[in-house]
Structure to design on (986 residues):
């Protein structure tokens, strides 16, 4: 992974001079560009650049970016996910080519050491001097390490950068116990990371409860309980006074109350301090306790210098969350370019997150400090849920809330508060579980258009409405055009409600029924068929549907029956349900002929078999083409020729390739370690194994796979439903990639797997997809529409959150065990062979199928060519 | 509609066409798609229309899936999925398009077409 990053980085460096050269001529006639220096390449600094590009003004600026860290901007909020996979790709924020394509010059691994406001020049650590017209200061913050004796010992860390994480990971290899000093939000994130490194983990908090700033006593107790359940020891009201040599571990921590704790690793997470030394040295206006003072436009005391993010002090407050930082970045772009009028006017610090799998949310006045406010609390010790709302004296308005263990109401409660909406009478109903199962949330229709639904990406209800009006009709489309719900994902449920409400208003019936014959989704039908052990369409229609069925529900049912029971496609009770492609086991082309695609597992083929393909193609005069999936496609076979063609192919050892089915197509491969000097694993063997395992699996849509033998990724695995890339230690598994109309890079799902775990996860993943996806929904859209997305999918497949894993594996093994080559079975059955003739009462063939020759092969004749032939 | 003057021609045995499916017959040098459908009341019905799909300009309608759309019994073109009502030949998606229908019946175990 490092190599890849380095490659991108070098690519960036190389691309810059070239692009600059290219621009020299163009620039002569253009007005002088404004020299803009962005200091800091963290998430907020990067988002500033994204906003600048969006404003359409970036061409007027000559932008130079400095980042102290060796990597371009990454998403610090999700640092813990780095721990799981050790992959920067998971949290990288910069799309490939972003800097060079916008002509931004990026200096990673070089920090700015001085701003000379008189000469208007900055100086970097590496000795670069860059003159500026405007500066964006986005230097962020540093973790605060209290001056406890021993804080500078070995194996004492902070938790902020990937480098910190690398050091912690290295130290964890020899340690057994880890302690985090600080039980705030970041502290608990760090504790999760230590747990993931298999350390016995302790959290040490000075205050009487965890997350003291965001949640109240009752919530803190519930949170402690839940976290202790997970195996983390929580110690509150502990004041660390000394860190010295331990007896059973590397350190001994001594607390003010006389107690001691031995641990091998210590991570400080005791708050942040603005990274303001550069501003201080430059003489900008500072707060008494640090931070660069800014106004609503994010301007500092120098009209040419803006400050944004955690270094900035607004109204004497530092905002340590990503959302306010982004709002500042936008305000700074608006003011700098004059393209907008947004300002930073403070930010709501409400927050919802998942800490170690525990939902935690805090809204507004969580501590009920507003005079005369009223509180309502719901505590459920069995489910370990704590909910509190704080409302105004007259019960009319929500002031704050704390939710632990279940934060489902977060979205609607937040909207009540932000939009000052009037609460229903008896507001406690908002957090009480409803006995009839109905939800007593907000009516999304009542939300004003200005309501911000997604605070991470600053997406308002109006933005979502506009997207719906422009044609977006599902969550995947909303995500791609508004970016809503692509940050923390906390707003997914709310955005979905707004989407459905708007669709309904537009008269688009939000009807998830499969078709007019079944008032069920595909997923419902799948469950019905499984549970009731239904084996035929007639049975399903009689008990659960109406009418005769149609070209939607018949093939869908056939597909589900195949996923469940795996009977032959031309089984008497099934054949009438099959689309022509499945019925003729070929892909119908525009002239009614079919294409023939034998399976070539992994793309590996002997010369003898290749010759057979050539001979068959020649004998039946078939147009021959190599496919993108590393096999051979033979076009122009008339239906009555198919049995003869397949008899020859089957005799030569070929099997059907299922190119016609909603099923596994191919497992593309590279040649791997057997031949390639770069390969680190045997990708050929794996791809053949996988193709043979999953061939014949019927699924909601076609499935594609690939296996690459090293990170060079020659098999393009990241564009597949399941892609595997070899590592030194095993296999990295990627999921939900897609080529086609809407390309999508696959997401890293799990790293360094051995063969057994890899196959286990793929089994579960595919069966879960088969079970829950809509008809014709590719895995990419399936996941994008899934609440919780990738993380949820991991929790189901890897952590077995739903307790389904064994069942899914069993279902897959049933499919694998009942595999048959559909063509082989067919040609052995004379009854079935009779049905391929074009005419039921004649051996003649369809005279309308006419070919002409192009590049020495046949192709269907055009209408004009047909007339000239008949004339 | 069956009239007294019609002369019926044997095409195939009933078993040559599977329930709810179609087959193409060569009839007076024409390609006719014959369908065997069990209707909503459980009665077996036979329909015959042109095999030629006007949208794809190919002889493929006999290879489409049959079914019902509201109360109409239809076949879906296997290429571009337009629906044709089997009793009238009308295209549901485009009322300017239709295919010809032919008289068809079951006589004993034999399916017959008439000119």
């Amino acid at each position: 992974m490092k190599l890849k990053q380095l490659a991108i980085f070098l690519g960036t460096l190389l691309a810059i001079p070239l692009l600059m050269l290219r621009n020299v001529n163009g620039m002569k006639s253009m007005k002088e560009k404004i020299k803009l220096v962005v200091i800091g390449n963290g998430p907020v600094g990067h988002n500033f650049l994204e906003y600048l590009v969006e404003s359409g003004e970036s061409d007027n600026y000559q932008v130079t970016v400095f980042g102290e860290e060796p990597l371009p901007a990454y998403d610090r909020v999700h640092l813990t996910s780095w721990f799981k996979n050790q992959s920067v790709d998971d949290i990288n924020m910069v799309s490939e080519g972003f800097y060079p394509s916008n002509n931004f010059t990026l200096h990673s691994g070089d920090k700015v050491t001085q701003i000379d406001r008189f000469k208007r020049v900055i100086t970097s650590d590496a000795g670069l001097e860059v003159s500026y017209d405007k500066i964006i200061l986005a230097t962020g913050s540093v973790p605060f390490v209290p001056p406890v004796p021993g804080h500078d010992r070995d194996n004492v860390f902070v938790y902020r950068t990937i480098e910190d994480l690398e050091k912690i990971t290295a130290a964890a290899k020899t340690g057994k116990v880890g302690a985090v000093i600080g039980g705030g939000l970041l502290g608990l994130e760090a504790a999760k990371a230590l747990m993931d490194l298999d350390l016995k983990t302790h959290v040490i908090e000075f205050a009487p409860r965890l997350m003291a700033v965001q949640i109240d006593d009752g919530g803190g107790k519930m949170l402690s309980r839940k976290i202790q359940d997970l195996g983390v020891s929580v110690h509150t009201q502990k004041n660390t006074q000394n860190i010295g040599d331990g007896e059973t571990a590397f350190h001994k921590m001594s607390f003010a109350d006389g107690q001691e704790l031995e641990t091998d690793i210590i991570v400080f997470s005791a708050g942040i301090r603005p990274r303001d030394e550069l501003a201080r040295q430059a003489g900008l206006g500072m707060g008494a306790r640090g931070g660069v003072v800014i106004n609503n436009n994010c301007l500092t005391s120098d009209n040419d210098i803006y400050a944004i993010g955690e270094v900035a002090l607004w109204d004497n407050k530092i905002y340590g969350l990503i959302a306010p930082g982004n709002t500042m970045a936008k305000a700074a772009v608006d003011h700098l370019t004059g393209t907008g009028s947004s300002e930073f006017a403070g930010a709501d610090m409400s927050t919802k997150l998942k800490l170690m799998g525990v939902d935690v949310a805090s809204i507004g006045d969580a501590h009920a400090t507003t005079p005369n406010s009223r509180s309502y609390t719901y505590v459920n010790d069995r489910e370990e849920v704590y909910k509190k709302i704080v409302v105004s004296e007259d019960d009319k308005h929500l002031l704050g809330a704390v939710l632990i263990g279940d934060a489902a109401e977060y979205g609607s409660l937040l909207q009540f508060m932000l939009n000052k909406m009037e609460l229903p009478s008896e507001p406690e109903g908002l957090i009480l579980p409803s006995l009839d199962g109905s939800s007593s949330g907000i009516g999304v229709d009542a939300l004003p258009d200005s309501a911000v639904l997604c605070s991470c990406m600053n997406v308002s209800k109006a933005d979502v409405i506009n997207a719906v009006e422009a044609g977006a009709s599902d969550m995947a489309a909303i995500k791609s055009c508004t970016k809503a719900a692509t940050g923390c994902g906390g707003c997914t449920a709310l955005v979905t409600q707004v989407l459905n409400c708007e669709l309904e208003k537009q008269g688009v019936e939000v009807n998830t029924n499969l078709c007019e014959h079944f008032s069920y989704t595909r997923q419902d039908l799948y469950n019905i068929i499984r549970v009731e052990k239904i084996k035929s369409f007639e049975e399903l229609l009689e008990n659960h549907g109406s009418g005769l069925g149609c070209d939607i529900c018949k093939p869908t049912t056939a597909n589900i029956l195949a996923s469940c029971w795996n009977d032959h496609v031309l089984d008497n009770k099934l054949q009438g349900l099959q689309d022509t492609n499945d019925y003729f086991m070929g892909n119908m082309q525009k002239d009614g002929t079919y294409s023939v695609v034998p399976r070539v597992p992994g793309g590996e083929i002997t010369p003898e078999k290749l010759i057979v393909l050539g001979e068959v193609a020649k004998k039946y005069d078939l147009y021959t083409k190599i496919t993108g999936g590393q096999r051979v496609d033979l076009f122009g076979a008339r239906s009555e020729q198919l049995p003869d063609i397949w008899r020859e192919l089957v005799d030569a050892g070929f099997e059907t390739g299922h190119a016609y089915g909603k099923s596994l197509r191919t497992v593309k491969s590279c040649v791997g370690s057997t031949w390639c000097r770069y390969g680190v694993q045997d990708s050929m063997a794996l791809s053949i194994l996988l193709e043979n395992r999953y061939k014949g699996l019927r699924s909601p849509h076609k499935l594609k796979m690939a296996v690459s033998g090293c990170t060079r990724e020659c098999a393009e695995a990241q564009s597949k439903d399941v892609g595997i890339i070899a590592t030194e230690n095993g296999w990295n598994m990627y999921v939900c990639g897609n080529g086609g109309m809407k390309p999508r890079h696959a997401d890293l799902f799990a790293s360094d797997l051995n063969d057994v775990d890899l196959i286990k996860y793929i089994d579960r993943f595919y069966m879960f997809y088969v079970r829950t996806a809509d008809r014709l929904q590719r895995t990419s859209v399936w996941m994008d529409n899934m609440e919780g997305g990738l993380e949820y999918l991991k929790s189901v497949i890897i952590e077995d959150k739903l307790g389904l894993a064994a069942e899914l594996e069993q279902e897959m093994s049933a499919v694998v065990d009942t595999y048959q080559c559909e063509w082989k079975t067919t040609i052995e059955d004379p009854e079935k062979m009779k049905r391929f003739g074009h005419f039921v009462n004649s051996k003649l063939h369809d005279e309308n199928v006419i070919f002409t020759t192009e590049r020495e092969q046949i192709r269907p004749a055009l209408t004009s060519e047909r007339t000239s032939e008949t004339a | 509609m069956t009239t007294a003057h019609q002369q019926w021609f044997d095409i195939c045995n009933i078993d040559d066409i599977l329930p709810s499916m179609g087959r193409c017959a060569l009839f007076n040098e024409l390609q006719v798609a014959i369908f065997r459908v069990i209707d909503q009341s459980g009665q077996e019905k036979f329909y015959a229309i042109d095999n030629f799909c006007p949208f794809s300009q190919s002889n493929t309608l006999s290879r489409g899936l049959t079914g019902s759309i509201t109360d109409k019994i239809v076949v879906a073109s296997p290429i571009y999925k337009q629906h044709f009502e089997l009793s009238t030949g009308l295209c549901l998606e485009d009322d300017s398009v239709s295919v010809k229908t032919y008289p068809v019946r079951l006589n004993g175990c034999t399916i017959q077409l008439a000119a």
